[in-house]
Amino acid sequence: MSRVIRAALFQTAWTGDKESMIQVHEQAARDAAAQGAQVLCFQELFYGPYFCQVQDKAFYEYAEQIPDGPIVKRFQSLAKELGIVLILPMYEEEQPGVLYNTAAVIDADGSYLGKYRKHHIPQVPGFWEKFYFRPGNLGWPIFDTKVGKIGVYICYDRHFPEGWRALGLAGAEIVFNPSATSRGLSAYLWQLEQPAAAVANEYFVGAINRVGVEELGDNDFYGTTYFVDPEAQFVGEVASDKETELVVRDLDLAKLREVRDRWQFYRDRRPDAYPPLTAP
């Protein structure tokens, strides 16, 4: 039996200031809801520039409390007004000096369901993230939303298969991967890794990337946001590699049972044989 949900992803360029960036995303949520979307995920660190191109403590000011800060409260009200599930990738301050790259998940009634903290933190030219973030410490939670069971895996996380599998074992039906990834560095992986994860773990993946070159560095964010199904098929067209775009697609979650009954990857796993994989 079909079980279709309408899901959305939003890629955009940095506007130049925080408030206008928030407003752009509020309008995207309204536009998605007007098209019938029931769930929407924004890009990594959605209300700011990708400041990790430089190491500057001035950008610590972008961090705020989750869920008690003003941005989460603002989007809780919007989610309730529109009746849409929202995934908000943000800069979190747990306490002064304790900062994370985090996604807050808001249900369609405006309730705060919880957060995911990015586990894997890069420290390479143009992506100086260890200057800004501690590694995540909340595991791989699944959020039981109005549209289904949602997981989040943020940007650099996608290179590590262990978290993808943990989300599948926990029951994820859709995993969102909000990102800020640059053309020269990772483009050859972008349409390979997430489809492979969707197949290996038998769920839908929504992959989001920002667009454009920002004033802080040379990173050329190449968009090409997309949904992919558990057979590695793109759901509709992949988004532009240069322009702001709202991607709205219908996902039939009944496909998960079909694929899992066919392949039985979860039945045939051998966790008894895997201890060496977690040895230090």
Architecture overview:
- Helix content is 24%, strand content 28%.
- The chain contains 5 helices and 15 strands.
- The chain has helices spanning 18-34, 70-82, 161-169, 183-201, 254-263; strands at 4-11, 39-41, 85-95, 98-106, 112-117, 123-124, 127-128, 143-145, 148-152, 174-179, 204-209, 211-213, 220-222, 226-228, 245-252.
- It has a 6-stranded mixed β-sheet. A 5-stranded mixed β-sheet has the order 8-9-10-11-14, covered by helices on one side.
- The radius of gyration is 18 Å and the shape is globular.
- The model has no long low-confidence stretch (mean pLDDT 97).
Structure summarized in a few sentences:
By secondary structure, the chain is α/β, with parallel strands linked by helices.
The beta-strand count equals: 15
Poorly predicted tracts of residues: none
Proportion of residues in β-strands: 25-35%
Gyration radius (Cα, Å) is 18 Å
The helix fraction, in percent, is 10-25%
Largest sheet: 6 strands, mixed
Mass-distribution shape: globular
The strand line-up of the biggest sheet is: 5-4-3-2-1-15
Structural class: alpha/beta
Number of helices: 5
H/E element order: EHEHEEEEEEEHEHEEEEEH
Span of the ends, CA to CA: 45 Å
Mean pLDDT: 97
